[in-house]
Amino acid sequence: MSSHSGATDDPTQKPLNSQEDLLKTSENLNETTPKPTHLSPLEQANAEKLAKLESEAKVSEQEFLKAKE
Predict the structure, then answer these.
(1) Mean pLDDT, rounded, for 10-34
(2) Where in this protein does the record put region Disordered (predicted)?
(3) Is there a contact between 8 and 16 (Cβ–Cβ < 8 Å)?
(4) What is the 3-state secondary structure (H, E, C) of 9-67?
């Protein structure tokens, strides 16, 4: 490990500007965030509905990206 400040760009890290990379990054963030367990039944239902919509959107986006190739 070199002793520089870390302000220089790491050439091995590619910029996260593609939609898929951003998606993966936010996915990882979501996985590490503990879900609160003190939700009311309504909040729980809304959270599940939202999670379902998000996963459906993710799948359709991946299909779209594959079709575009």
Answers:
(1) 60
(2) 1-44
(3) no
(4) CCCCCCCCCCHHHHHHHHHHHHHHCCCCCCCCHHHHHHHHHHHHHHHHHHHHHHHHHHH
